[in-house]
Design brief:
Shape: elongated
Strand order of the largest sheet: 1-2-3
CATH superfamily of the largest domain: Clc chloride channel
Helix content: 55-70%
Number of strands: 5
CATH class of the largest domain: Mainly Alpha
Largest sheet: 3 strands, mixed
CATH architecture of the largest domain: Orthogonal Bundle
């Protein structure tokens, strides 16, 4: 009898101990930060990187100017103080040195890996090489500092994204998180370069990641805000461009901007075609990169003899255009047309030769000059005289940016943030939408997808709904894996894991993190009634994984497996040989994407409108 009482007491003690242990496990899981919280923390860190990268880039460019020309300030103002021979010499010499840095630096950097942000996100694993990125940064600093007709925002974005990706690689993060870090770096770079946090987040969501999913968009916003505020602490806060406000009160004023949108769309397509033509011509030369960049610098220098405004990204000239400041020019319209053509040719030569940098600000220059010339021509015809020329210039900036990026929303937000002028939004929105329709009809790829299309990589994002399933791979939807259990995990701990989560399956891994099976909730029922489960481990109750997918598999190829699976979160392994668990995809999300794609257009619109 005493032995029986002792056994009962021991059983009650074990049961009490198990209950407290399970409560402790649930409390520990609740206190652990969620993946969304971790992503926000990482995004904040990347935002700091973006702000500091912008600061370093600014002082790097100024140092190059001081070293070469013994002057600092905007390249156009420097060029205007130089004689014709020096206007030719500095871009040519700068192109030669920047090309030599690329030629030898990339050789020393080791094996060539993709450095294009979109390529490593769309068709890669989110890994940007650090050494190649630093080499390109140094080359860009020399080019920009010596008058190349290109913007610095591209270099800031590249540097921030590369540093973010490298930090993730050092921490051993999986590809889905590296892609997110690259997107956050791009967002932080744009936000810091233009003091435009909304534009940074929208740029990364629409152009780089191609998704407005809140799981992705929230970290992008966080990184953009941190980068912008950090930049403001160094450079203050002020709009890049200042234009007079104008309130649109009559529908009769808007048709002019529809016409301007048509012209901007044609200009955007022409600009993209000209970039392709220039690149093809330079490649046909068969010359090394330093020779190509030197030739491009020579072209810019020769043009600058008559139009020094082609130096740099065009920020100063754009502001002069917006304020109708043309000096002593007797024929402003003729001068503006010549300046537009000069900048178009200079930028095409610079980009086509392979110069590292961005085209955002040069595109705004082209749009402002085109819009201002359009307004002047309309006024000389005695039309729309109540509309200031600056209004046409600003709307031209947005419409041209929309035509080259194929993203009207980004253009609207960007121009609003860099001017802080909301009064012109009706005309700006109208022209941006019209221009992108024209540009897409004339030139299928945007300025960002053109290089990918040349490599056979198609990028088609439907950011207002679900993406096209035919263009997606498993890696595009991959999230963090369901936290696995090990083969020797005890049954009581497995049961506690199920109680603390909504998962109906738990992956089982060995010591090498290889997926060896899954434990189903329903398979535990036969063991939960046993009083002593200490001898039961995951290996005893697991089943072989019915579905196993890899990141590079097209989503259409795994649909049948997804439909046949009972798992809410399907495990993703690195490959079918090593079988190492690296992520998961949501069964519901996959089915929703295909359901959205197969639904009639009218039903999709109806569902969006009612949501």
């Amino acid at each position: 009898m005493q032995v029986l009482d002792k056994n009962r007491a021991a059983g009650r003690a074990r049961a009490l101990l198990k209950r407290h242990w399970r409560r402790a496990l649930r409390l520990r899981q609740k206190l652990q930060p969620s993946e969304q919280a971790i992503h926000l923390l990482l995004a904040g860190f990347v935002g700091v990187i973006g702000g500091l990268a912008n600061l370093a880039y600014y002082y790097g460019v100024e140092s190059v100017k001081l070293l070469f020309m013994h002057r600092t300030g905007d390249p156009v103002e420097v060029a205007e103080m130089l004689g014709p021979s020096l206007r030719i010499l500095f871009p040519t010499l700068g192109g030669l040195l920047a090309g030599l840095v690329l030629h030898f630096g990339l050789r020393l950097a080791g094996p060539h890996r993709p450095t294009n942000l979109l390529e490593v996100v769309v068709a890669g694993d989110g890994r940007l090489p650090l050494r190649s990125g630093l080499v390109k940064t140094l080359s860009a600093l020399i080019s920009i500092g010596t008058g190349a007709s290109i913007g610095r925002e591209g270099g800031v974005v590249q540097l921030a994204a590369t540093l973010a990706s490298k930090a993730g690689q050092l921490l051993g993060y999986q590809p889905y998180r590296l892609r997110l870090l690259v997107g956050c770096g791009a967002a932080a770079g744009i936000a810091a370069a233009y003091n435009a946090p909304i534009s940074g987040a929208v740029f990364a969501a629409m152009i780089v990641l191609g998704s407005f999913s809140m799981n992705l968009f929230a970290p992008l916003v966080f990184a953009s805000v941190i980068a912008a505020v950090l930049t403001r602490s160094f450079f203050g806060i002020r709009p890049w461009y200042v234009v007079p406000e104008f309130d649109f009160t009559s529908l009769s004023q808007l048709p002019w901007f529809v016409l301007l949108g048509l012209v901007a769309g044609a200009l955007g397509a022409l600009f993209l075609e000209l970039l392709n033509l220039s690149e093809a011509r330079f490649n046909r030369l068969g010359a090394p990169v330093y020779a190509r960049l030197a030739v491009a610098g020579l072209i810019v220098g020769l043009i600058a003899v008559w139009y020094p405004g082609v130096w740099g990204n065009g920020y100063v000239i754009t502001n002069r255009i917006l304020h109708n400041e043309f000096g002593d020019e007797p024929y402003p319209l003729l001068f503006l047309t010549g300046l537009f053509c000069a900048k178009l040719l200079a930028t095409a030569a610079t980009v086509g030769a392979g110069t590292v940098g961005g085209v955002f600000t040069p595109t705004l220059f082209l749009g402002a000059s085109m819009g201002s010339a359009f307004g002047m021509a309309v006024h000389q015809l005695g039309q729309a005289e109540q509309l200031p020329t600056a209004v046409f210039a600003l709307v031209g900036m947005a419409a041209t940016l929309s035509a080259t990026t194929h993203s009207p929303l980004l253009a609207m937000v960007m121009v609003f943030e860099i001017t802080l002028n909301y009064s012109l939004m009706p005309a700006l929105m109208l022209a941006s939408v019209v221009s992108v329709l024209v540009s897409r009809r004339l030139h299928g790829a945007s300025i960002y997808t053109e290089s990918l299309r040349a490599k056979g990589i198609e990028v088609e994002h439907e950011v207002l709904g679900h993406p096209d399933p035919a263009a997606l791979k498993v890696g595009d939807l991959m999230r963090a894996p369901v936290p696995p259990v090990y083969e020797k995990t005890k049954l009581s701990e497995i049961a506690a894991r199920f109680l603390a989560s909504t998962n109906n399956f738990l992956p089982v891994v060995n010591e090498k993190q290889q997926l060896v099976g899954v434990v189903a909730l329903q398979d535990l029922k036969a063991h939960l009634t046993e009083q002593d489960d200490m001898g039961v481990i995951a290996y005893d109750v697991m089943r072989p994984p019915a579905v196993c997918v890899t990141p590079n598999q097209p989503l259409t190829d795994v649909l049948a497996q997804v439909l046949a699976s009972e798992q809410r979160h399907i495990p993703v392994v690195n490959n079918l040989v090593e079988n190492r668990l690296i992520g998961s995809i949501s069964r519901d999300e996959v089915l929703a994407i295909f359901s959205e794609a197969l639904s009639p257009r009218g039903e999709r619109v109806g569902r969006r409108g009612s949501s």
